[in-house]
Automatic annotation (TrEMBL):
Lineage: Eukaryota, Amoebozoa, Evosea, Eumycetozoa, Dictyostelia
Chain ranges of the Chitin-binding type-4 domain: 23-234
Family annotation (InterPro entries): Cellulose/chitin-bd_N (IPR004302), GlcNAc_Chitin_IntDeg (IPR051024), Ig_E-set (IPR014756)
N-terminal signal peptide: 1-22
Signal listed as a keyword: yes
Keywords for this protein: Signal
Protein name: Chitin-binding type-4 domain-containing protein
Domain of life: Eukaryota
Species of provenance: Dictyostelium discoideum (Social amoeba)
Amino acid sequence: MYISKFLLLSLVSMISVALISGHGYSIYPMARQTLCPKGNIWWPANGDGITDDACKAAFKHVYDKGNNAQFQFVQINEFSINIPNYAQGDSALQASVPSALCSAYATSSSNDKSGMSIAAPWTVTNIPTTLGATHVNFTYTFCATATHEPSYWEFYVSNPGFNPATTELKWSDLTKFQTFPNTANIPFSHPACTATKGYAFNLSLPTRFSNSVLLVRWQRIDPVGETFINCSDFKCVA
């Protein structure tokens, strides 16, 4: 019992550190890692108590490797990787994140969030549109637990026919449809946001009427080249 309490206290401490040092996540549409329920990730230790099928599969994907499977559920603010040569463009991004895109290639034993990249029946955000529309216009929002400027943003959408329930996302499955230069943060309030600042962008998203993925890259302009990647599962509904 003492060991269990010690581990629980350690995990609570880890959550606190993660939220302080983290940098943010997509609010609309919601980032994949934010939609997994937190209450059942602690016990049983193998994740059997998790009721959401995709989240349970994500947990077990990391747990079965012997790594900390809770980490990807609690450090929701920091799905990131450093790309010092980011100015080289797409080639640098894809070389630094060759797989596990929705985890920002966090696959090491000390920082394993790879479960968030597996093929699974992820919960989607329904985005209203009209039947036959080729694009849907809406405001994308991001909860910034730390703001970073200068920076720039890139938005990608999965190609028609891609199925996130059966296929893990690759760069070849994505189309970049919009970019934004350095953008100032704004005051922000949302029940799912732990901060008071955020970012908002007016998107013209190519419509997808089946389950699809919006991948967002937030790139800091600095020598370290810290890059944040969030995946949001969505479906356009008329």
